[in-house]
Amino acid sequence: MPASKLPKVGTTIFTVMSQLAVEHGAVNLGQGFPDFPVPERLVDALGRAMRAGHNQYPMMTGIPALRQAIAAKTARCHGWRPDPDSEVTVTSGATEAIFDAIHAVVRAGEEVIVLDPCYDCYEPAIELAGARAVHVALDPASFAPDWAAVRAAITPATRMLMINSPHNPSGAMLGDADLRELIAILDGTDILLLSDEVYEHIVFDGARHESVLRHPQLRERAFVVSSFGKTYHCTGWKLGYCIAPPALTAEFRKVHQYNTFCSFNPAQHAFAEMIEQEPEHYEGLGAFYQAKRDRFRERLLATRLKPLAVPGGYFQLVDYSAVSDLGDVDFCRWLTIDKGVTAIPLSPFYETPPAGQRLVRLCFAKNEATMDAAIERLQAL
């Protein structure tokens, strides 16, 4: 058997912990998926699309109606309208878009800067391209970027920088000042940017999501990735999209067409209708999840777990140091097996986890009964 192309990769921590939750009947607040219904309009639109015969291969780039709806929504949300024909591509989820973007432009021997902790699909895609992930740590308390450290990590081999806001796993968000720092760092370089913005509509406390697309100096060198699954509570539909300037989109589509070629046709028709006819869904998503965040946080305060601030996204980090000195992976196994609640450890999101860090991730994209059942068990810690 030849040597593995991904020797450091095993089964993802999300799969491991979800399987453990099933085996032990635990309340699963680990893997990030909602357990409440998909919007009724979207379900109805999907059924109509299937009955109308939209069940065969759609256009490789995505159906025109959906790309046009994405362009209009982008203009409404971020003040700039991409060209739906040359700058918008529909993909089989954000993970595919991230993979395609990396493989479209990153070559063997090059470097990609990632900010730790980062989502676990980033580095394998980089390694499969024959490149090297260069890890720069975020602040371990605030999860803010150290832009001086990012600048110092740039070498002649740097091909791409990857950012994620709102951030998974912490919920931290990049502000306008961060993007202006990024403009200054990248100015005069050929470094490309991959901006993972899948939680773009889940922002709290009156804040605005600062998309890369708001800044021409950034969007002219960027792949910006979004997710319908996160916005519309249907992660299993696996549909997302990438916005990039025409030259980058042309390269992106070369990979996409030989990776998945196209994506779930009837869902594309359903999303096109949903975006156009019910914009209040994505416009109200922050308030919808903020109510869940606030209720969950209030109830966590009655446990021995200490909740951290959550500016965006649908994950709550908690400090468990008052409960246990176990490392985070062992703590999550113990919490699942002995206490009946499943969380996700933070260490798999790092190349080198901070020494002594005692943080785990809980998902509050759940109905009230699920969260109440989990809180009841957590109060017994």
In words, what does this structure look like?
- This protein has helices spanning 13-24, 40-51, 64-78, 93-105, 122-128, 147-153, 176-186, 216-219, 228-231, 246-259, 265-277, 279-283, 285-300, 328-339, 368-378; strands at 27-28, 88-91, 111-116, 132-137, 158-164, 192-196, 222-227, 240-243, 306-307, 315-319, 341-342, 344-345, 359-363.
- The chain has 381 residues and is an alpha/beta fold.
- It folds into two domains: 13-31 and 284-378, Aspartate Aminotransferase, domain 1 (Alpha-Beta Complex), CATH 3.90.1150.10; 56-278, Type I PLP-dependent aspartate aminotransferase-like (Major domain) (Aspartate Aminotransferase, domain 2), CATH 3.40.640.
- The mean pLDDT is 97.
Spatial shape: globular
| Rg (CA only) | 20 Å
Strand runs, count: 13
Mean pLDDT: 97
